[in-house]
Amino acid sequence: MKSVLDFLSDLGRNNQKEWFDANRSRYEDSKTKVLFFTEIMIQAIRKFDPEVPPLSPNDCLFRIYRDIRFSPDKTPYKTHMGSFIAAGGRKSSRAGYYIHIEPGNSFLGGGIWCPPADQLKAVRWEIHDHPGDFQEILDDPEFNRYFKSIEGEKLKTEPKGFDKDFEAIDLLRYKSYAFGVPVTDQQVVGEGFIDFATSAFTQLHKANRFLNSALDKWA
């Protein structure tokens, strides 16, 4: 994976079409390596999460091309590579597992990021009805080895339709129910990265199972 980090680092300094075209073989090589790692993770995750079907890594890997139509930043390429593993691949609306490879900013994560209103409401109601079950996941020492807190923005007040005096109202204020653990460049290129990612995602499955159950129940 060192060559992947090297390519992305160079891309960050030369984010233009001419440079990318001249280095397309490096991009293709990096893409192949990330797809291979994604395939390994798909097989590992399927051993403990029966919801994840046989997936093509190509369906999980996000495009490196940025959508610049409505962005003031017109650089054409992302300076990271990422894969989302869940039923439906990168287009999934389910809670899943995310691999993010970026020099100095790699991480493993997942859950549900910025879900649409109906899905967010479903998760909130499930937490409302089973706050102890969800808190137990968040407080699990093995889970906490990797995932310290829910990530993303929070409402300043209670969400519409929920009692502000509810005992676990703070858990309902999140706009996402996502989790992440940073990984260093040394970890990404190290021999133990597969084992680390597998262990992290095994723990993340506890949260994903709760979140996907909420989506199914309140659909």
Describe what you observe in this structure.
This protein is of the alpha+beta class. It has a single domain, classed as BirA Bifunctional Protein, domain 2. It is built from nine helices and four strands. It has helices at 2-13, 17-22, 24-46, 57-60, 117-129, 131-139, 141-144, 185-189, 193-217, and strands at residues 81-85, 96-101, 106-112, 177-183. It has a four-stranded antiparallel beta sheet with strand order 1-2-3-4. It starts with a helix and ends with a helix. It comes from Gaoshiqia sediminis. This is DUF2461 domain-containing protein. InterPro entries: CHP02453, UCP028451.
Characterize this entry briefly.
This protein is 46% helix and 11% strand.
